[in-house]
Amino acid sequence: MSPLLPPLDAHHPRSMADQVYDMLYERIINLTLPPGTKLSEAEVAAQLGVSRQPVRDAFYRLSQLGFIQIRPQRATTVAPISKDAIVRAYFIRSALEEATMRVAATNLKPVHLTALQDILVRQEDALRMADKTGFHALDDQFHHDICNYSGLGFGWAVIKENKGHMDRARYLSLSFGAPRALAEHHDILDALRAGDGDGAAAAVKRHLNHIDEIIDWLQTTQPEVF
């Protein structure tokens, strides 16, 4: 399997199965493990320095979410990007985040707005350094923190469980979409700072609504990922 995976920390508070899952999930989302990559329980276990059981558990969880394909007597592989899965993820995420913005507009305190502004400053740095991984992580943090500051952390948990299929497509689009995404984050924050719930909801809808454009672009430029 390529590329190599780093050994896990036996003293980490999360279980080994969770750590294996997190490691593989992140690499599937950022396309370090692209669609079609073969995965071997034995090889992953050896590279991560764990037994095969936590790897088997992580493989099962990833297969249930549609990220890997486990087929008896055949190689386990990273699943292709699914347009249907992206559309389902978009529907769930858009509905929950629009509702969240209306709550956030009345619940966020000045300290929260300052913290969100700091994330955008760091995103600007990541964009300037062409750090796609850092930019994507800060994108997640921005949306996550709005949910948490609004008292709606449970909403983000639902979004996170479903958004991975969107994330693979959005990550590939960062080569041209990152500046627009950052500008739209500023639009969201401006509306929240003004206490405009409807404006913030409209801004996040615009922000997420590029997914059809991204799918069309990928189908033209990288059809092999589907």
Task: Tell me what you see in this structure.
- This is GntR family transcriptional regulator.
- Residues 14-81 form the HTH gntR-type domain.
- Pfam families: FCD, GntR.
- The protein is mainly alpha-helical.
- The protein has two domains: 16-78, Orthogonal Bundle (Arc Repressor Mutant, subunit A), CATH 1.10.10; 83-225, Four Helix Bundle (Hemerythrin (Met), subunit A) (Up-down Bundle), CATH 1.20.120.530.
- 71% of the residues lie in helices and 3% in strands.
- The protein is built from ten helices and three strands.
- The protein has helices at 16-29, 41-48, 52-64, 83-107, 110-128, 132-149, 153-162, 164-193, 197-208, 211-221; strands at 38-39, 68-69, 76-78.
- A three-stranded antiparallel beta sheet has the order 1-3-2.
- The longest helix has 30 residues, at 164-193.
- The model has no long low-confidence stretch (mean pLDDT 92).
Beta-strand fraction estimate: under 5%
Structural class: mainly alpha
- Number of spatially distinct domains: 2
CATH superfamily of the largest domain: GntR ligand-binding domain-like
Radius of gyration from the alpha-carbon trace, in angstroms: 18 Å
Question: At CATH's second level, what is the architecture of the largest domain?
Answer: Up-down Bundle
Please count the helical segments: 10
Q: In this structure, how is the largest beta sheet organized?
A: 3 strands, antiparallel
